[in-house]
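debug: dumping io for the single-chain case to check the tokenizer round-trip. Nothing else runs in this session.
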Amino acid sequence: MKLKQLASNYIHTGVRKAHSYEAKQQILVANIFSFIGYSLTFLLGVSAFLRNELVLALILVTAATLFVISHLLLRLTWLANPYKFSASLITLSLLILMFYLVSSGGNNNTGPLWIYLVPPVALFFGGIKKGSIHIVIFVMFISFLLFYKDGILIDAQYTDEFKLRLIYSFLTVTCLFAFYERMRKSSFRRLQQMSDQFEKQAMHDPLSSLLNRRGMFEKLEQEFSRVKRSNSVLTVMMCDIDHFKLINDEFGHSQGDEIIKYLAKDFMENLRKQDAVARWGGEEYLFLLPDTKGEDALVIAEKLRARIENAHFNHKNKQFNVTISIGLHQLTSDDSINQAITKADKCLYNCKVNGRNRCMLGQ
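debug: decoded output
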């Protein structure tokens, strides 16, 4: 179990909460690839050293060191996006290593067989555009090495047939990986869009398009935490449509739904950017007003109440008006989220008792 935990900690090195899913995926792969990279190249380097192939051994050990550095980069907290530097270093290290293996032949001229690692790594870390550029440069460079004056620039000896088949097969593998990467990106975008859509549906009321209870609770938790840290002010307002049951009974539920949507639209258009409003219940709305004292919030509430009172609704040529009541509570240092909402709701109840169509601020 301890070994499993160590492995999990290793591959998650550099992952931050703020990272996107795609970034987290790249970090995990970078950690895994760097581990495989420095482990394998170090072992191959030791093997080359034992065979007295000192240059190859030095190159392999250097590559192992670069792979280690690519992992260590992910541990730097002062870099904004260390995984991007790590990914670039991994790709660069791999390309340099492949250049050398093609040029030297590696062990018994098997070095070129490793170049098929390039397409998946370059395309995954660099994306289709950047990865393809890296691959084109790589193909042009090794083609020049292989074919210039029958390979005079390289130490290894390859037949022309081997060289051509190596390039053709490499390009074929590259095309397949590019297609796969394109499909992976496309699938990821579709899944992300679906996830965003489901998340929005889970956090919003379908009728009014306002936040629902779940969405508002998330906002409340964020703002309450910020207020506690910064010692700033915050006011919550509980709003209710007066005599809403009578409206439904007289004009029908469809007309009641239209009123709910009208009020939601009016609230959203007349609140500040930092404010939030949610449909809290059937005909109830909860407002969150950051950095707003109770007295200032009361002014906002009165404007909302007056505007709704002066709005006119029509149903089968019959005109009618709607009024709202609003209870307000300014957050205190001892308030929890539920306590603040309860106090605003109590003020709303007092509005109802005192005749409705009014706003009241708790003491």
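debug: round-trip ok. The first strand starts at residue 234 and ends at 241.
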